[in-house]
Request: fold
Amino acid sequence: MRGSQFIYDGLWRCLCPAFDRAALHRVVGPRSFALARPTQRVPSARCPRLVPSRQYATSADGPGETVEAPTTKELRPRRRAGVPREQTWEDRLLAPTPPTEDALQHVPVDDIVAALVAMRDPRGWSFHGQDIDRHGRILQLVRHLLGVRGQPASPFVYECVMDAMASPRGSAEGVRKLLDDLAQQGMKPTAAMCQGALAALANHPDYALRQEILTVMQEFWFTVNTPAKQSVVLGLLRDEQYELAYARLTELIETGARIDPWVYDIFIMVFGKLGFLDEMLQLLYRRKSTDTHGDVVTSLHYFTLDVCSEAFYYAGTMFAWNAVVRNSLLQPPDGVVENVLATAARHGDASLATETLDLIAQRTRVMAYHYEAVAEAFARAGDMAGALRILSIMKRNGIRVARGNTRMVYEALKDRPRLVQDAEGALRSLGADGLVPLAVVSVVMEAMSELGGSEGAMALYRDVSALCGEQPDSSMLQTLMVNSREQETKRSLARDYMASIAEEDDAVRSWRVYEELIPSCAQLGELDLAFRFARQAASLPTVSGGGTAAATRNHLGWLRRLVESAVEREDGRIWEVVDQLSKRGDAETTAKVQKMLQQTRLARRVGELPRRA
Reply:
C-alpha cells in the first residue's frame, strides 16, 4: 500500500540531503506561496547548508555495524583554488547590508521564502555571527513578494510580519492591525501566528490584547506550550505586574516545564534592580542548576554580589561571594568590596570582614572606616577581644582612633552587658602586649559606668596611664562624673578634672551632659568648674528646628541650681552667663532668666529677715 507523500519526502531527505530544496519548492512554490497552509516552526525548515549534520548508513561488514556517511559539504564538488565562490541565497538576502530592489529581482521566490523561514527560526538568526535588522529585513522581503512578485497574502505572510513585531521597532498596535487585517481577508489565525503575537506582546505589553489572543488559542484548540507561557510571563513582567509575573513563573516551574535560561536571566536582572532580592536569589538558584558554568552565570553572580551587598542583604552577598570570589572566577571592584565589608559588619561576620579587609589592603591604603567596619563585625559577633584588637592595629598603622570610631563597640556593650567583663579582660591583655588607644579604654569605661555606675569603672580608671601611656581626657572624665552615683566619686573626679584638663581642652558635649554636669559641680561647691561648663553650654550652636532660643528655653534646668549657688556665695560670674544667654536667646528667654534672678534674690532676703518670737 502506497504511503503518504510526507513519508516519501522524509525518506528522500535521509537519502539525499539536496532533496530539501526540491521539497521546500513544492511546499512553498510560487503557485501557492506556502502560504495557504498553516506553518509549524520546525527545525528542519532550515536549509541543510546552514546546519550540516552527519548521516549514518548500514555497513556491509556485518549486521548492526554503521559507517559514517559523507556530509552535505563532502558531497559538494570541491572548488578549485583561485575560483571565486558563488554567492548563496544567504549571502544575497541575509547579509548585514540589506539587498537592493534590483538584487531582489534576480532572486527566486523560493530563496526569498527560505530566507523568511530562516529568520523566523525561534533559535535566532545571525549571518556568520553578525546580527541583522530582522524587523526591517522581514518587512522588506514581504513587501517585495506582495508588491513586486504579485504573491497572494497568506497565513505564512502574516506569520512572518507577526514575528517582526517582536522586534523593538514593533508595537502592540501593529499586532492588533495584523489581526484585524487577517479577519478582513477572511482568514483564520494559526497557532504560529498566535505564538508570534504573544512573543511580540512580551516586548510591547498590552494586557487586553494578550488575553484576547489566549482566548483565540483556546477557541481553536491551539496548544499553549512553554514558549507561549514564557511570552505571557515576560509580558506581565514588562507591564510591571511583578507579583503576578513571579506567581505565573513559579507555577510554570512547579509544573516541571523546561524554561529557557534567558527567561531566568531577565527576571533576575529586573528583580535585582527593583530590590526583590529574596525572589531574585531563589530564581538564581534554579538558574544555576540549569547551567553551572559559563560566562552568563558568572555575570549573574557578579550582578547579585553588587545589588545584594549594596542593600546589605547577607544571604545573597555570601552566595555570590562564595560562588565567584572565593573560587577566583572574578575580582570585584573596590566599591563592591567595600559594600561587602559593610554587609559583613552589619551582620557580624568577622571572617568575611577580615577577608575583605585583606583584599582592600592588597589594592589600596586601608582607611579608618575600613578598620571601624571590621571592628563592628567582631563586636556584633560578640568577640570583644577581636574588636578592640582591630582598633589597636588601626592606631599602630598611624591612624588616630577617636571617640567616634568606637561607637559600634559601645552599642554592642550596651546591648549585651555580659560582654563588659570580656572587654575589660581584653583591654588588660592588649595592655600587656603594648599601649592601647585611649579611646578604646574610654569606650569600655563609658559602657561600664552607664550600666553599673562609675564606681565599677574606677579600677580601670586608675590603670589608664599604664594601659595607654597618657592621662584620661576630658570626655572620659565628664562621662564618669555624669554617671557617678556617689558624691565622693564625683568630687574626686571633679578635682582630677580641674587639675589635669585645661579649659581649651574641654570637649564640647550635648545639652543632656551639661544638664548633669553643671548642677553636680554646683552642688559639690566646685563653682569654678560649674561656671566653666556653663559658659560652654551657653555658647552651644543651634541644635533644633526652633533655633537656639527654643533650645535654650528647653534646657535651662541647670541654670536655676547655678543661680542659687552663685547668689548664695555672691559670685558675680553668674552675670556673664546670664548676659550670654540673653544675647543668644529671645525676649522670652531673657524674661525667664531675669525672673529667676529676682525670685532667688527675694528668697534670700526673706531668709535673712529675723523671725518673730
User: Anything to note?
Assistant: The radius of gyration is 42 Å.
